[in-house]
Amino acid sequence: MKTAYNFNAGPCVLPKQAIENTVKALYDFDNTGIGIAEISHRTPGWEKLMADTRQLWRDLLNIPEEYEVLFLGGGASTQFMTVPANLLNKKAAYLQTGVWAKKAAKEAKLFGETVIVASSEDKTYSYIPKGWTVPADADYFHITTNNTIYGTEIRRDMDASEINNVMLVADMSSDIMSRPVDVKKYGLIYGGAQKNVGPAGVTFVIVRKDILGKITDRQYMNPLPTMVDYRTHAAEEAKNISMFNTPPVINIYMMYETLKWVKELGGVEAMNKINVEKSNLLYEEIDRNSMFIGTAEKDSRSIMNHCFVMAPGYEDKQDAFMAFAKERGMVGIKGHRSVGGFRASLYNACPKSAVEALVQCMQDFEKQNK
Ligand SMILES: *Cc1c(COP(=O)(O)O)cnc(C)c1O
Description:
By secondary structure, the chain is of the alpha/beta class. The chain folds into two domains: 16-264, Type I PLP-dependent aspartate aminotransferase-like (Major domain) (Aspartate Aminotransferase, domain 2, 3-Layer(aba) Sandwich); 267-369, Aspartate Aminotransferase, domain 1, CATH 3.90.1150. Helix content is 34%, strand content 16%. The protein has helices at 16-27, 44-61, 75-87, 99-108, 230-234, 249-264, 267-288, 318-327, 352-369; strands spanning 5-6, 67-72, 91-96, 113-119, 140-144, 146-147, 152-153, 168-171, 188-192, 203-208, 292-294, 305-310, 330-331, 342-345. α2 crosses α6. The longest helix is centred in the last third of the chain and has 22 residues, at 267-288. The structure holds pyridoxal-5'-phosphate.
């Protein structure tokens, strides 16, 4: 097979071991002689797989008992609507750090008053805004911890005192499982799997049970349609099954294998350490190399997505570098059209050797073109 260094932003690189084991399970799940896509989701083997996957989430992120872990369909984008449907009684607050955050806030507006506490849209979302205040009467405060398109990240868990004791809700699509998270500080965490925990098609939701079923004043979408109400999917948790309808079985299986791999490597603390190392390696080169500059403000930089453009005076070399990098096997480094230039996504499964190859490629390009 051709050597490719995969820097795609999502869907993206996944652990080889997880891919191999999923392929095996497609032929033969759990020594049944039948593949994972061909069995009933009500067989004990599958129910155990669901329970084991949920337990991996609990173990890796230290998720307390009072939270449910749900695996749903529809992607993170569906959660933009489901979150306010379940939690927005009168007012919600959003920190607008990118188009995903903006899209999330747009859905909230359907359900009630939506306050944008701050936005970095003025500078193409190249920084995380500071100095904002969350209205104390908001039902929740929504953040996007990692802004995949712009390479900015809130890499810490906010304290209640910083956000007026308002319940914190986070879209963690692109940095979940990349670092330890203090789940207790959040009412709800959600995301699409396809950046760090598996293939596209399954969405994770970690939700504190006591915040659900509290919509009293709202007219719109009240009562909730069955599939939209998180309680529908959590109802069978006592039996550790939690499958109201047929779940995306292949996706969940591959998520299970991906999380097993994370656990084997030492869990999220170990992932964080490796991720910081990989990220530093690339940012050091972006900052050192006279032909490139980073686009995100330094104190807002993501350790998952690294955005850079040609430095002033070298703008005309963009296509040449793209071709040069392609020749060296670099895949998926084209920046999002709203930022331009390049973006290298270094998710959990991206090996350090790939980052080293990219750094070498940037150094060689500088030597040949300066
Ligand atoms: C990719 C992404 C989304 C969209 O996820 P879908 O599963 O495609 O709906 C939302 N938020 C963030 C931060 C993302 O990176």
